[in-house]
Design a protein that fits this description.
binds nicotinamide-adenine-dinucleotide, binds uridine-5'-diphosphate, 319 residues, seven-stranded parallel beta sheet, 9 helices, 13 strands, alpha/beta
């Protein structure tokens, strides 16, 4: 049995000082939960949670989830893992460890305290997909030995662990397959396409298109994703997922660059650079399952989301 509690739910968010985690915590605090944020600050930043320090229902613990953690909570969101290719390729062995050893520790914790646990998985489990759009039933097309494998295979193994703890130990698990998400608090130097293009446009630098820019992605605004994660955690115990969470509207990378230039009024030129290996050529979530099971779908279109994100980076640049 999960800890009996009266009105305040205690929620652990690993990776809570990161981009998605910090927005999730804002929402949990807003709705009255008590939040324990565990983060080793590898890619996250204290700045993302500074506004919460001192809040009576917020606590921060600097800790690496590759080491055991003994705490008492009512629910666990497991988000700890570097997410941008530059960061997860910086120390690939550590990236696999976070997904595998980190997940084992968080599952062991969930098992001991009988708490529901949600895994932030990824569209990368589909690799360079041969099925389009991707449904949860698709098993993926992943290179096991390439430069993205530490992330892709780590996250795939984490999903395996979640489902084995569910089958073997009857754990209440939830697996979200998150597609490209963007918004304020993305790290300006983490190399992801939305932050790169906005930073480059605001500085008047060239916009770096990898390859010819015909590859596609579907971009979800962070508030929409957070709503999906919370709905998934709150869904009935029998619903495990995996469930795709993302915005199904697909853009080419060139279209994104042109939109950022238009919206910032930048004079930047588009320049092509080599496409990194194993870069997926197309990606679009089929979100029928999230619509049916969670009553969820994204509300923000790319232009609305970019406006807020550009505003954030603009302010960051001006101190
Ligand atoms: P992020 O890098 O901003 O956040 C990850 C957080 O995890 C950081 O605060 C980092 O310091 C922390 N962390 C890393 N290793 C840790 C460890 N060993 N112990 C404790 N903390 C650790 O990335 P994000 O975009 O916020 O992603 C959050 C989660 O969502 C990740 O699991 C990521 O794989 C997943 N996800 C994100 C996206 C996206 O587009 N943003 C897409 C798919 C999946
Ligand atoms: N674990 C943890 N916190 C807990 C309980 C377990 O960090 O509250 C870790 C523990 O160190 C172990 C892992 O989770 O290595 C897996 O735990 P489990 O009980 O599944 O496996 P076992 O301890 O039997 O290897
Ligand atoms: N990309 C690009 N220019 C950049 C950064 C990324 O053209 O400056 C491309 C990248 O090659 C990929 C897409 O944009 O095709 C999305 O990249 P990101 O790293 O944001 O996410 P992921 O590849 O993990 O979906």
């Amino acid at each position: 049995m999960a800890r009996d509690y009266f009105s305040t739910r205690r929620v652990l968010v690993t990776g809570g000082a990161g981009f998605v985690g910090s927005h999730l915590i804002d929402r949990l605090i807003d709705r009255g939960d008590e939040v324990l944020c565990v983060d080793n600050l590898f890619t996250g930043a204290k700045a993302n949670i500074t506004h919460l320090l001192g809040h009576p229902r917020f606590e921060f613990l600097r800790h690496d989830i590759c080491f055991p953690l003994f705490v008492e909570v009512d629910a666990i969101f497991n988000l700890a893992c570097p997410a941008s290719p530059i960061h997860y390729q910086h120390d690939p062995v550590q990236t696999t460890k976070v997904s595998v050893i980190g997940s084992i520790n968080m599952l062991g914790l969930a098992k001991r305290i009988r708490a529901p646990i949600l895994q932030a998985s990824t569209s990368e489990v589909y690799g360079d997909p041969t099925q389009h759009p991707q449904t949860e039933a698709y098993w993926g097309n992943v290179n096991p030995i390439g430069i993205r494998s530490c992330y892709d295979e780590g996250k795939r193994c984490a999903e395996t662990l979640f489902f084995d703890y569910h089958r073997q130990h009857n754990l209440n698990i939830k697996v979200a397959r998150i597609f490209n998400t963007y918004g304020p608090r993305m790290h300006p130097a983490d190399g992801r396409v939305v932050s790169n293009f906005i930073m480059q446009a605001l500085a008047g630098d060239d916009i770096t298109i990898y390859g010819d820019g015909s590859q596609t992605r579907s971009f979800c605004y962070v508030d929409d994703l957070v709503e999906g994660l919370i709905r998934l955690m709150d869904s009935p115990e029998g619903f495990t997922g995996p469930v795709n969470l993302g915005n199904p509207v697909e853009f080419t990378i060139r279209q994104l660059a042109e939109l950022v230039i238009e919206m910032t009024g930048a004079k930047s030129k588009l320049v092509e650079q080599p496409l990194p290996s194993d870069d997926p050529t197309q990606r679009q979530p089929d979100i029928s399952l999230a619509r049916t099971e969670l009553g969820w779908e994204p509300e923000q279109n790319l232009r609305e989301g970019l406006e807020k994100t550009i505003g954030y980076f603009h302010k960051l640049g001006n101190g």
